[in-house]
Design goal:
The protein is an all-alpha fold and 190 residues long. It contains seven helices and no strands.
Length: 190
């Protein structure tokens, strides 16, 4: 049992197969685009949980705790845990946005939401906040984290400045995520 649960990829594969079984046996999946929409909505929620869950891990746990970690233990986080978490964080951001755009397209409100037409302003706000957050991940947070974590070799002053930049944009995303989550959860389809 420990060998199985010790293999994340195997656990994810079996979880996916279990979900497919639930969908086939109990999902009452509609035919055509409506069924496809449900599948992409499910992926959107899954990737969103991974993305925002890691965002909250960084902001609620890692950032506030790192100053308290003894110097000799910090490399355990900065060389192993943070790079791995940032891998899932940045790719979850991409897949959350892509699946969200697909859901909006399949639901027929992509353009209406992105242009804030009546009935779609709330989801449009959520979508734009998510797009800004994903932009922050790839343009500010990840490049700064590469320097701060020593993935890209820089001098100490640049490393410190990069850590501050990563923290500011990570906290910006935390701030934006609160309203974004409200807009996403509350939207009822126009």
């Amino acid at each position: 049992m420990a060998k199985f649960f010790g293999n994340l990829h195997l656990v994810l594969l079996v979880g996916l197969l279990l979900a497919v079984g639930v969908i086939i046996c109990f999902g009452n999946l509609p035919a055509g685009e409506a069924g496809l929409n449900q599948i992409f909505r499910w992926f959107h929620v899954f990737f969103g949980i991974v993305w925002i869950g890691l965002l909250y891990y960084f902001n609620f746990v890692q950032i506030p705790t790192m100053p308290k970690v003894p110097a000799e233990l910090k490399p355990g986080v900065s060389k192993y845990i943070a790079p791995s978490a940032l891998f899932f964080f940045r790719w979850a951001a991409v897949f959350t946005v892509l699946t969200g755009l697909i859901v909006a397209h399949l639901s027929g409100y992509l353009v209406e939401a992105l242009t804030f037409l009546p009935g779609f302003q709330l989801i449009g706000i959520g979508m734009w906040l998510a797009l800004i957050m994903a932009f922050n991940v790839w343009v500010f947070i990840w490049p700064a984290q590469k320097k701060a974590l020593g993935i890209v070799v820089v001098d100490d002053a640049t490393k410190a400045k990069a850590a501050t930049t990563a923290m500011i944009f990570s906290r910006t995303n935390t701030l934006l995520s609160i309203a974004m989550l409200y807009a996403m959860v509350t939207f009822n389809g126009g």
